[in-house]
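User:
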Amino acid sequence: MNIFVKLGTLIEEQGLELLHGPEGYQDIAITVAEVNRPSLQIAGFFDYFDPRRIQILGKVEYTYLEKMEASERTKRFDELFKRGIPALVVTSDLPIFPELLSAAKHHNITLLRTHEGTSRFMSDLILSLSVWLAPLTTMHGVLVEVYGEGVLLLGESGVGKSETAIELVKRGHRLVADDAVEIKRVSRKTLVGSSPEIIRHFIELRGIGVIDVKRIFGMGAVKDTENINLVINMEPWQAGKHYDRLGLDDFTTDIMGLQIPSLTIPVKPGRNLAIIIEVAAMNHRQRKMGYNAAEELNRRLLETIEE
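Assistant: Predicted structure:
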């Protein structure tokens, strides 16, 4: 599946001023997260030029163009636009060269403008494109926010993931997704999970059916997106199987090439899974802040033995 974002969506999101838009410009597909300041292209160098990128003109390019004759500017804009770029954005509310507008109309290129400075606009646009165009996968599970940590609950159907999520919501935490979790890799280190729009804020409870968490528990009980910080694998308790009791070993789950810290929690009657997951989330935060209870206990034991 090709991932893209429509140009019209970016225009609305970034609050861009439309100076010229050919027919159907809103539906132009943007497929790359990189942008380009065409300084070298204005100077005539087009080696390795990627025409799929949105082009951005700032004060540096404008100062260079102002020194040219109008006929030379027309030639440079024609050379750039005939490559079929998706759009060109002028930053800092700079005045528009008549030759630029004329070339945009001639080549049917979308011409836009923003009041933001070049560096800030590029940063905002790249961040937005990185989210829209991030690699995407869908996993069967439940995603909840617990004490600010995104916890992804995995396990076989019927193990109790949704019931645990409802208990967590009752205890003041937030539901992000139930059953299907859409996961995007938005950077080299970050995964963001969300729910498909059609089932957002709904959760299925066996014996009751589908409920709307937002309507029953309120707006504070749901969240649209959350980083995935911890994976908890829920499985039926297996007699004789060794489960980690100290926490000295670090386990991870591979999701889209990233190793996410993970735990395996055995499920059996009488265990309060919501409280266990709360403690797991708090313990994970402690570890990120540099304190590991298992290592501290191990250190004390070694000191006692040495004495």
